[in-house]
Amino acid sequence: MSASEKKRFGIVALGLTFLSFLFFQLFYAYHLFFKEQIQLFLFNSDYFLSYFNKPAWLACYAGDYLTQFFYLRGGGATVLSLLFCLEWLLCSFVIKRISATKNAPLWGLFPVAIDWMLHCDLLYRVSASVGFILVLILFLIYSSISKRWLSTAFGLIMAFIGYWLAGSSFLVFPLLIMVYDWEKGRSYLLKWLLIGAVIFLIPIALRHYYLLTITQSYIYPAMNLQSILLRASLILVLMAAFFLKRFEVKYSRIFNITIPFAFIFLLLFGIRANASFDREKILSLDNEFYFGNTDRVIELSQKYNLKSRSATYFTNMALAKKGELPEYLLDFYQPAASGLILPVMPDENWQSIFVSNEVFFLLGDMNLAQHSAMLGNTFSPYQRSSRMIKRLAEINMVNEDSAGANKYLRILSKTLFHKKWAESRQAMNHVSASDKWLIGKRAQIPQVDTLRKSNYYLTSLSFLVEQNPNNLIALDYLLCYHLLNKDLKSFRKVYDQYGRLINRPVPSLYGEALLIQLLSSQASQDEVASYAISPKKIKDFADYTQLFEKTKGEINALSGRFGKSYWFYYHFATIQKR
Amino acid sequence: MRSFIFSAIISLILASCSGPADIKMSHTLPPIYPDYIDVTIPVNVAPLNFLMRNGPDNMVVTIKGSKDSITIKGTQRIEIPLKKWKALLTAEQGRNLSVCVKAYLNGEWIQYEPFYWHVKSDRIDPFLSYRLIEPGYEVWNKVQLVERHIESFDERVIADNNLTDGTCMNCHIYGNQNASLSMFHLRGKNGGTILNRYGKLRKINTRGKEMLSNAVYGNFHPGGRYAVFSTNIIIPELHAYRSERLEVYDTASDLIVIDFDKDEVITQPFLSDSTALETFPVFSADGKWIYYCVAPAIPLPDSIKLLKYNICRVSFDAENGTIGLKADTLWNARKMGGSVCHLKTSPDGKYLLYTVADYGTFPIWHREADLQLMNLKTGEIDRLKVVNGPNSDSYHSWSSNSRWFVFASKRDDGIYGKPYICYIDSTGKAFKPFVLPQRDPSVYDNTLKSFNIPELAKGPTPFDAKDIERVYWDQEVEQVK
After folding, report:
1. Which of A323, A347, B159, B337 has the fewest CB atoms within 10 Å, i.e. is most exposed?
2. From the candidates A40, A363, A367, which should be mutated to test the interface with B, based on the most B CB atoms within 10 A?
3. Do residues B366 and B408 touch, judged by C-beta distance below 8 A?
4. A95 contacts: CB under 8 Å, gap ≥ 6
5. Which residue in the set A212, A377, A379 is minimally distant from B448, CB to CB?
6. pTM of the model
7. What is the pLDDT of residues A20-68, one digit of tens each?
8. With bands split at pLDDT 50, 70 and 90, how would you rate the model's confidence at A101?
């Protein structure tokens, strides 16, 4: 390699690593956190052996090993940027070895752009990239063998074990061999056919052993068909490099400009097509809530102003945790009551089910939290989620079920990054634990039993409040549930029974709702006064009523001053029944 | 310096060799998992590998019989060599094996009190099938039916819902512990009850006219022509109190018999009316009786704690395919103060094994749910104290010689069911059960699946996941009349 080539390699490597790190750290970090949360990597022989139940054991084990580092701040971006750098380097070597093009470092960027794009998908695994890298390494080994019989033998051995090691990425191997041999002026039809047939037949032949469908057997360890773009991109790039090679001396400047430009275009197009920045925002709310940063959730939610049920869900929980739900509920988008609790239903997507336990855990309904966490784990892509296992451990600790908690803590103690957490929880995993957090959570749980359907949230909230009227979060959720469904009668009943017992000024939202209810029930002055609603609120209500009558309910006239009031919601929000 | 290095090396060698020679005696039993302390095992079981919970650096285990012994070394777990184990068990049938555990812990060797494995010459049926599914909640994503060879650690998936469009699969049950006669329900749009009758697979829609649902809980007639089923409207609801998790109850349930030769449903009006809830039917060993659970219909879920199932039986005439007109009560829930489910008659006809919970019909989340054994000749009931654990014990299945039964127990953690194996001698005395051995016992620690409805069989099932995939996608469903 000449000095200028080395320099070129160095610049591209650094640029690629830096750019990809920046992208994933600044714009996609919460996706990477989430990817760690939906897997669980154990240091245990039984767990290691489980990788042999499916193809690509080496790629999957290495990929999952690397994914656990996504737990660390910057860990995911570091792992991916280094992987991309390695992938690019190997692609460049492969392209150079096959096509002898001078622009191999530039052509090598295209598969990386595709892989970068694919990594924007929540279900795309690091294993898929590792599998691809393994195949590139195996090909480079193959192509460095000069003896024909030895390379054929190596090719054949790899044909039999490549799928086992690297999975479906290995399907590109015979094509690489063929192009390489062809380029070298060797025509080994029988060898190509033999190796190609073995490689393409192995997935279908082994699919029942690995219990995969036909499609799965040709894309594993990836989970969707889009993943074949990575392999296809390498073949396309090889073809392009091969056919355009003759022009590269004459038009070297054009190549030097066009290829990076095309790479950037492809990358931007791919990211635009595959990345979900709204989901990144929602995941940021999720993760900030999960790590207890409630102020940050509210701040981000205000900034994003998303019209999304999931965003509302995390915002509402953050508000409730701060005791501010009835103050600021309507400052945020509210899709009726469905932003309070995410349903666990067959038609819900797995991400929604995954986070649905958070609200029940917050409310102190440990059985619904357990139900949701179990299902969150069951429907997560690998059915082994570190986050759900942690939550299940916590739930069992709160329920004073030491044996149940032990089950999960023991699993977590076999991980690299959750071990410390498990050990600290293990220390307080007993009935008489004096930990403040645990005592607080245990105080929330009901002392009697009842049966309810998992999606009868009103029943569950009412039960929680009946059992523990001081459970302010549950009470606010119940009251807001009624308000968002415009059920003022039920709201007032609950407020009268429990809300008035709470020692706090009448929250803004409740005051507004009470005024409507009191007016419609033609309550006396004394009755209104007994609620101690602030005089300012009463005056605002009078103003609102006056303006409403004056403008004959003109929405634009009212939205400016009163757009975030319950009166406005009551008049103008339309509730759609699911 | 050289002499210092030399003496350091010598000391290290001595320390490593001193091992079990320098032993501190402990008067406690070793903290092993699974609990294999003083258990009774069949001569044909796989090695009882175990691990130590106190995390030793090394361990040495000596399994000693009257003539021979095996010594195994490990770090925190042992893996007993299969060949040596088999030879030892064969040689020691009817005798006890002593197990001596020495562990290197905190810089010293400790020898624990020995414990014993009682080897019975009565063999257990060598195959066990179970469903691997996340526990409870009546919801699934990935489900497998698995067949395990009890004499080794070989495992084979006989159905996988990844190949059948993600549909739910209910548990696989055998007739007479015969692997050539078995069935399970495969749900979904191409589903049906998969009937394996002497190797031929059929897919049957078991929902006939005026039936509440498809067939649910079932059992084969010893002749293999008939099977008795319940049909149930099943409602799952969640508890609110601490570790009480899920309650599942029927708002309606009936009994039917299906004649697989004619594909006909046989009913009896008193077993299909709305005043009573009938479920968990099984045939007697001679096929002349149907045992089942029945409770009067009450308002649910309000009165769930009053929902108590009795054991009744009604005659069955296999020649004419008719169910008797009158039922006898064998176990009166009101008098006995509990609720019965999961009846299983022993193949020798002597016993009826069942689960008793405080109330309801879904004991897997009932901590108090225990197995009981009724002597069908004397009516005597054994509460099986030595068998039952602190959590739910249910879903049992007999070995064909009636000397062993397997059941699902949540005794370890209260959440995940595992297959436990129990010996019953010729007098009906039950012995301490043991969990199905695994090559690596930490499988049980790491798994997030329950071993659901373990069923014993004399041989391997004649189908596998590939056959089930073909039946699901390509085979026409047959409709019962």
Report:
1. A347
2. A367
3. no
4. A101, A104, A107, A108, A237, A238, A241
5. A377
6. 0.93
7. 999 999 999 999 999 999 999 999 999 999 999 999 999 999 999 999 9
8. confident
List chain B residues with pLDDT less than 50: 1-19
DSSP string covering B447-481, please? Answer: --SEEEEEEEESS--S--HHHHHHHHHHSPPEEP-
Q: Are strands B108-111 and B23-25 parallel, antiparallel or unpaired?
A: parallel
Residue A498 contacts B, CB cutoff 8 Å: no
Q: What three-state secondary structure class fits B183?
A: strand
Which is more confidently placed, B302 or A121? A121
A46 to B440: CB separation less than 8 angstroms, yes or no: yes
In degrees and rounded to multiples of 5, residue B59 shows phi and psi of -150, 150
What pLDDT, on a 0 to 100 scale, did the predictor assign at position A248? Answer: 80
Partners of B304 on chain A (C-beta within 8 Å) are: 451
The closest CB to that of A404, out of B162, B241, B414, belongs to B414
Q: How do beta strands B173-175 and B178-186 pair?
A: antiparallel
Q: Is A212 on the interface with B (CB under 8 A)?
A: yes
Of B378, B341, B343, nearest to B363 by C-alpha is: B341
User: What residues in A contact B157, CB-CB < 8 Å?
Assistant: 211
pLDDT per residue as tens digits for the range A297-355: 999 999 999 999 999 999 999 999 999 999 999 999 999 999 999 988 878 899 999 99
What is the rounded distance in angstroms from the CA atom of residue A451 to the CA atom of residue B236?
Answer: 9
What does the pLDDT read at residue B9? 44
What pLDDT does residue B17 have? 38
For chain A, which residues make up each domain, given as ranges?
A: 1-38+72-124+228-274, 279-444, 512-578
Percent helix, strand, coil in chain A, to 5, is 75, 0, 25
A227 and B CB contact within 8 Å: no
CATH number of A279-444: 1.25.40.10
Mind telling me how many Å the CA of B155 is from chain A's nearest CA? Answer: 12
Query: How many residue contacts between A and B have a Cβ separation below 8 Å?
Result: 118
CA–CA gap between residue B451 and residue B150 (Å, rounded): 14
- The pLDDT, as a whole number, for residue A277 is 97
Q: Convert B303-333 to b/e letters by CB count within 10 Å (16 or more is b).
A: ebeebbbbbbbbebebeebebbeebeebbeb
